[in-house]
Write a structure and sequence with these properties.
Layout (H helix, E strand, L loop, with lengths): L7 H12 L5 E3 L10 E3 L3 H15 L4 E6 L5 H17 L4 E7 L4 H11 L5 E6 L4 H11 L6 E5 L3 H9 L4 E4 L2 H16 L14 E3 L6
Parallel strand pairs: 1-2, 3-4, 3-5, 5-6, 6-7
Antiparallel strand pairs: 7-8
Helix pairs in contact: 2-3, 4-5
């Protein structure tokens, strides 16, 4: 199983493994164009489209900032592509700022989010990567809970706290436990020669608000 940035060196390593008879399953972020057997993860374009539908509907017209971890990650790029597609087609009255890269680091993400507040008329933020503790710190410092709508990814301790205190409005979750179980089952089937019988379906996208936290 491989979780990696989209890079020619990684592709070549996967291709070499495949030639040696090693089945490779990509997890979370796909590497199309490589010899990987299967991808296990959510439809990241759909996740980005979902974020756009939420922010486009519930933010007053203005600026919406986008913070990515790294655009070298295909899952982050696909989320951004889905987001932009819906915003431009359905909510043209909003201006998109970014994407700024926080490299999934709390301090860098806090700095990136702080930069967004230099833009007048900021009404929403889409954090499509990690670094969520930095996002929350920047929001709390400016006391904008309830005035700037925020969509983030992955139900973690930090995003759970953000939902509970109102810093984050919606979390888009990819069910990591389900992903790992599906990846193990897919890899086991491939190792046993049942590769064609076990193409993992996309993992369902979960949406969490403060009201439905489990």
């Amino acid at each position: 199983m491989v979780v990696a940035t989209e890079d020619d060196l990684v592709r070549r390593a996967i291709d070499q493994a495949s030639r040696r008879g090693i089945a490779v399953v990509t997890l979370v972020s796909d590497l199309p164009g490589s010899a990987r057997q299967h991808f296990v993860g959510i439809d990241n374009v759909a996740a980005g489209r979902t974020a756009a539908s939420l922010l486009g509907r519930f933010c007053p017209e203005g600026r919406i900032g986008v913070v990515a971890g790294s655009l070298a990650l295909r899952d982050h790029r696909e989320r951004y592509e889905g987001f932009i597609a819906v915003m431009s087609a359905e909510f043209p009255g909003h201006e998109i700022v970014g994407p700024l890269e926080g490299f999934d680091d709390d301090a860098l993400t806090e700095r990136a989010v702080g930069g967004l507040f230099e833009q007048p008329g900021l009404t929403g933020i889409y954090n499509l990567g990690a670094g969520t503790a930095g996002l929350i710190a920047a929001l709390e410092r400016r006391q904008v809970s309830g005035r700037v709508r925020v969509v983030a990814h992955e139900l973690t301790g930090a995003t759970r706290a953000g939902l509970q205190n109102g810093s984050i409005d919606v979390v888009i979750d990819q069910n990591p436990d389900g992903e790992i179980a599906a990846a193990i089952a897919t890899a086991r089937a491939a190792a046993m020669g049942h590769d064609g019988e076990r193409a993992a379906p996309p993992i369902e996208i979960g949406l969490f608000l403060r009201d439905n936290l489990r």
